[in-house]
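Quick start: read one record
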Amino acid sequence: MEYTVQKLSKLAGVSTRTLRYYDEIEILKPARINSSGYRIYGQEEVDRLQQILFYRELGVSLEHIKEIINQPSFDGKTALREHRMKLLEKRNQLDLLIANVNKTIAQIEGGTKMTDQEKFEGFKQKMIEDNEKKYGKEIRDKYGEEKVRKSNEKLKHMTEEEYNEVTSLANEVIATLAEAIKTGDPASELAQKAAELHKTWLTYYWSDYSKEAHAGLAQMYVDDERFKAYYDEQQPGTAEFLRDAILIYTDLKK
C-alpha cells in the first residue's frame, strides 16, 4: 500500500511537517514523487518510520538515528528485538515507581512498612535508565557488558545513606575541582585531593577499582563532548585539568 504525506501522517500520528523535515534531513525519503509533485511512501518507508519512532521514544537523537539506520549492516529484525528489550526495561522502571507510590500510600495510611531501600528503588532504576540513554554504548564499548552490569547492580542495592553520601561526594568533587583549577597546576595539593575524591566517588559504582580504568575514564571526559560539556560548564578546560590530575594521581601521566 502507498501513502501520501497526509495519509502517512494520520497513520503514524506525526505531523506532516515532521515527515517533510525527515525528508529534508534524509532520514526518511519518500519512495517516489508522483506526477502531481506529491511525496509517495511505500511499505519500506512505513517500516523505516516505525523504527525511527521507536528510537525517538527511547530518547535517541535524530542525528544518531540517521547514523544507525543508514548503516549497510542495519538489521530491522535485530533492531526490533533491541527496542523490545529497552521498552521492557522502561516498563519495569515504571512498574517500580508505581509500586513505590502504592507502598508509600499504604504506609501513610498505616497498612504497611517500607524499608529505606524500597523508598528509592524506582528512582535508582530511573538513574540507571538515564545513564543508559546518554552513555550506555560508550561505557560498554570501553569497559564491557559485565562491568556495566555489576555497576548497575551496585547502584540498585545502595542504601539511602550511601545514596546521599555519593550525591554529596559528587558535589564535593566539583567544588574542589573549581578551586583546584585556579592554581593552574594538576599536581597541586587541591588538584590531587579532587582526584582522590573522584576515586572515592567511583568506588560507590565500580565493583573493583584500577588505576588504568580510572585514567581511561578521565580521558573519556575529554574525548566525549557530553562529558566535556558537563565539566567545562562553569570553567572551560576543567575536563582536561581533571584528566591531567587523575593521570598524575594514578602515576600514568606520560
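Strands lie at 3-4, 32-33, 39-41.
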